[in-house]
């Protein structure tokens, strides 16, 4: 089916009434500007980030169709089956304005239009809404225009400004997050640039997460401690309600595992009377722990740190530590 009719080749177009007028007629200029605005809003809807704004803009686009249809008709009263803009739509615009402005800081001066694409598109749509308003005012000086239409288009431009401010705010927040993440990655180094003999932040996070998940499954609140290959503490985290003494024991277990290159439960027999390490605990002034819950962390045959768990029984502490080590796929050479 052809979309061309050739009826407008002479520079005229038909209103809903069938009357042909110039394409520069104020009525045509007004709903033509609304058409530009509607096309612009479709671009906005594709870019916005704020919750619910896309659905809101979709509804506004439909309302602009009603608006344009009314202007293309010379009837003052709604016809059967035709939707008209009402105070209900204006109320929805005002509510959207209030929601958006509640999330941004107050400003007391003019602002540059948009620091990000979503806000820039909304600001452009705002200028089209203002132009449509000017065209509507011009038209109202020649023909009767419902006052609610003038109120709606004025409020719509305010609404687009508020939404642009909100999108600007969200874009700025995301920029800060990205900048912090970039600086962190630069400071931490790319995984390929880090020493393979050290624990990464990601591995630390995985160890603690896996250990706490296993502890929760067992119903045992524990303290989780990780040291580096030199025995220096990297992280200690106490789950709610964990025993206070565990805050002392977990780091000692992690340190012992590194210092002795052995899981702590394997030292228990070696420190008994007559065994090679008898008296070690006394010599180390209690710094060495010789019961289960401490494990060295190995990579490619080298110790890269130690993990200490304390809070449950010896068996539970060992279970939690081994579950964490398995979750990060890190061997313990035991």
Write structural notes for this entry:
- This protein is an alpha+beta fold.
- The protein folds into 2 domains: 12-185, Up-down Bundle (Hypothetical Protein Ta1238, Chain: A), CATH 1.20.1200; 201-327, 2-Layer Sandwich (Beta-Lactamase), CATH 3.30.450.150.
- It has helices spanning 26-47, 53-71, 87-101, 117-140, 147-188, 201-218, 246-260, 280-283, 314-327, and strands at 12-14, 20-22, 223-228, 233-238, 294-299, 302-310.
- The strands form 2 sheets. A 4-stranded antiparallel β-sheet has the order 4-3-6-5.
- The radius of gyration is 35 Å and the shape is rod-shaped.
- The mean pLDDT is 84.
- GO terms for molecular function: corrinoid adenosyltransferase activity.
- It comes from Kosakonia calanthes.
Task: Please describe the biggest sheet, giving its number of strands, its sense, and whether it closes into a barrel.
Answer: 4 strands, antiparallel
- Mean pLDDT score, rounded? 84
CATH topology of the largest domain: Hypothetical Protein Ta1238, Chain: A
End-to-end separation: 77 Å
Unreliable spans are none
How many domains? The number is: 2
Over the alpha carbons, how many angstroms does the gyration radius reach?
35 Å
SSE inventory with pairings:
Blueprint: E1 12-14, E2 20-22, H1 26-47, H2 53-71, H3 87-101, H4 117-140, H5 147-188, H6 201-218, E3 223-228, E4 233-238, H7 246-260, H8 280-283, E5 294-299, E6 302-310, H9 314-327
Antiparallel strand pairs: 1-2, 3-4, 3-6, 5-6
What is the compact description of this entry?
One of its GO terms (molecular function) is corrinoid adenosyltransferase activity. Pfam families: Cob_adeno_trans, HbpS-like. The chain is an alpha+beta fold and 334 residues long.
């Amino acid at each position: 089916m052809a979309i061309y009719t050739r009826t407008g080749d002479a520079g005229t177009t038909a209103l809903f009434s069938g009357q042909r007028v110039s394409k520069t007629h104020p009525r045509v200029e007004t709903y033509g500007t609304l058409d530009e605005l509607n096309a612009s809003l479709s671009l906005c809807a594709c870019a916005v980030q704020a919750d619910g704004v896309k659905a809101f803009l979709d509804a506004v686009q439909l309302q602009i169709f009603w608006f344009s249809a009314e202007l293309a008709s010379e009837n003052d009263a709604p016809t059967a089956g035709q939707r008209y803009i009402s105070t209900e739509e204006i109320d929805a615009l005002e509510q959207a304005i209030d929601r958006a402005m509640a999330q941004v800081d107050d400003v007391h001066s003019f602002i540059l239009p948009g620091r990000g694409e979503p806000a820039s598109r909304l600001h452009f749509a705002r200028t089209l809404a203002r132009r449509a308003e000017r065209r509507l005012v011009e038209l109202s000086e020649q023909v009767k225009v419902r006052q609610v239409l003038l109120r709606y288009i004025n409020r719509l431009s305010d609404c687009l400004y508020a939404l642009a401010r909100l999108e600007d705010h969200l874009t700025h927040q995301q920029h800060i997050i990205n900048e912090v993440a970039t600086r962190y990655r630069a400071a931490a180094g790319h995984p390929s640039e880090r020493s393979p003999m050290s624990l990464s932040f990601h591995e630390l996070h995985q160890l603690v997460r896996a250990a706490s998940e296993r502890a929760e499954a067992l119903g045992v609140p524990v303290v989780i401690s990780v040291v580096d290959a030199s025995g220096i503490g990297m992280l200690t985290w106490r789950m709610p309600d964990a025993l206070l003494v565990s805050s002392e024991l977990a780091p000692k277990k992690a340190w012992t595992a590194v210092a002795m290159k052995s899981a702590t439960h394997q030292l228990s027999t070696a420190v008994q009377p007559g065994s090679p390490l008898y008296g070690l605990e006394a010599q180390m002034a209690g710094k060495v722990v010789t019961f289960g819950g401490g494990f060295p962390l190995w990579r490619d045959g080298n110790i890269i740190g130690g993990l200490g768990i304390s809070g449950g029984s010896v068996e539970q502490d060992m279970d939690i530590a081994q579950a964490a080590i398995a979750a990060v796929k890190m061997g313990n050479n035991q």
